[in-house]
Amino acid sequence: MNKSEMLKTIGQNVKRIRLEKGLTQVDLVGRIEAKIDTTNISRIEKGRTNATIYTLFRISQALEVPLAELCILNSK
After folding, report:
1. Alpha-carbon Rg of the chain, whole angstroms?
2. I need a labelling partner for 24 at 20 to 30 A (CA). Which of 18, 40, 52, 63 fits?
3. How far is the CA of 32 from the CAs of 5, 46, 53, 75, in angstroms?
4. What is the pTM of this model?
């Protein structure tokens, strides 16, 4: 798996979990305790940016899932 595929998969995981929880990107940003905007969430979900581990950790906390769940590389 190359870097681009990995970023897309992690982004798909974030989006899938967010949607399963019935959240919009704006809702998710509101739950994150730090400065992050919907544009950044959108880029992460599309695999267009390499989010830091700390950003992914904050997203996992906001989504109430373990960080590892965002990083599963064989998700659908």
Report:
1. 11
2. 52
3. 25, 19, 14, 24
4. 0.93
